[in-house]
C-alpha cells in the first residue's frame, strides 16, 4: 500500500524515478530543473538559478566560480514556499553546489525529513532506485524497477559483448565547453557498457575532469 506522503523532489533524476515508480501523485513540488516527465511541469518550482543562464559557457563558468569563491549558493531556494508546502519528504543531492540544490540550502526550512542522494558509480545510481522506493513506502516497486533496469543494461552489455575491442569507438561526453570538462562518475561506465571507449573522462566513480588544453 502506498503511503500518502507529500514529496518535494529537488533533483531531476529523483523526480523521474518517483514517476517511474508510479508515485507521481505524491509529488507536491519540484526544482526548477525538474522537467521530465512533462506532467511535473504543473508542479510549483521551489528553486531558481541565481546565474544568467543565457550567457556563454565561459561567462557562466566564471559566474559559478565567483559564487563559489564567496561561498554562496548558485541556486535560490524559495524557503517561505517550501515551509508552506510542508512536505513529509524532501529528496535532494549532496554531490556539489553547482549540480542542484543541496541540504545546506534547506537549513532555513525547518526540520525536514530528507533523503540525500550522492551516487558516484552506476551501481550506486541503481541502488538509489531502491532507496527512493523505500522512502516512498513502495519497496516492492523499487525491486521491480531495479530488476527491469538491470535486465535492460544486461541486454545492452550482451549485444556489444562480441564486438572486437579494436573496433570500439572512442567517445567523449562533455559536461561543459569552456573550460572543457569531460565526464565523470557513472558516465564512463555507461560508455563502456554501450561498447565505447571513454576519452576525456575520469575513472569510473571519479570526479569530472577539467582540461585547460587538449
What is the count of helical runs? 6
- Helix and strand pattern: EHEEHEHEEHHEEHEE
- Major β-sheet annotation: 4 strands, parallel
For the largest beta sheet, what order do the strands appear in spatially? Answer: 2-1-5-6
Q: Please indicate the percent range of residues in DSSP E strands (runs of 2 or more).
A: 5-15%
Structural Rg: 19 Å
End-to-end C-alpha gap? 54 Å
Q: What is the overall pLDDT average? A: 94
Q: By helix and strand content, what is the structural category?
A: alpha/beta
Report helical residue fraction.
25-40%
**Total E-strand runs:** 10
Unreliable residue runs: none
Quick recap:
With 214 residues, the chain is α/β, with parallel strands linked by helices. Helix content is 34%, strand content 15%.
Structural features, described:
The protein has 214 residues and is an alpha/beta fold. The protein has helices at residues 12-20, 57-69, 79-85, 122-136, 139-160, 187-193, and strands at residues 7-9, 27-30, 47-49, 75-77, 89-93, 114-117, 170-172, 180-181, 197-199, 210-211. The protein is built from six helices and ten strands. Strand 1, helix 1 and strand 2 form a beta-alpha-beta unit. Helix 4 (122-136) packs antiparallel against helix 5 (139-160). The model has no long low-confidence stretch (mean pLDDT 94).
Amino acid at each position: 500500500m502506498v503511503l500518502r506522503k507529500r514529496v518535494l523532489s529537488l533533483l531531476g533524476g529523483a523526480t523521474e524515478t518517483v514517476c517511474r515508480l508510479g508515485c507521481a501523485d505524491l509529488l507536491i513540488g519540484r526544482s526548477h530543473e525538474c522537467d521530465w516527465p512533462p506532467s511535473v511541469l504543473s508542479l510549483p518550482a521551489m528553486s531558481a538559478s541565481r546565474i544568467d543562464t543565457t550567457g556563454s559557457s565561459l561567462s557562466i563558468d566564471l559566474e559559478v566560480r565567483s559564487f563559489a569563491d564567496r561561498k554562496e549558493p548558485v541556486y535560490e531556494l524559495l524557503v517561505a514556499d517550501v515551509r508552506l508546502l510542508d512536505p513529509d519528504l524532501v529528496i535532494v543531492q549532496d554531490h556539489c553546489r553547482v549540480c542542484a540544490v543541496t541540504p545546506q540550502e534547506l537549513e532555513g526550512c525547518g526540520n525536514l525529513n530528507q533523503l540525500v542522494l550522492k551516487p558516484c558509480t552506476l551501481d550506486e545510481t541503481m541502488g538509489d532506485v531502491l532507496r527512493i522506493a523505500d522512502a516512498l513506502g513502495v519497496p516492492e516497486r523499487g525491486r521491480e524497477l531495479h530488476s527491469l533496469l538491470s535486465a535492460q543494461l544486461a541486454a545492452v552489455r550482451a549485444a556489444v559483448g562480441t564486438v572486437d575491442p579494436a573496433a570500439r569507438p572512442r567517445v567523449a561526453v562533455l559536461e561543459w565547453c569552456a573550460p572543457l570538462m569531460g565526464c565523470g562518475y557513472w558516465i564512463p561506465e555507461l560508455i563502456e557498457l554501450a561498447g565505447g571507449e571513454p576519452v576525456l573522462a575520469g575513472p569510473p566513480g571519479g570526479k569530472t575532469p577539467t582540461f585547460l588544453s587538449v
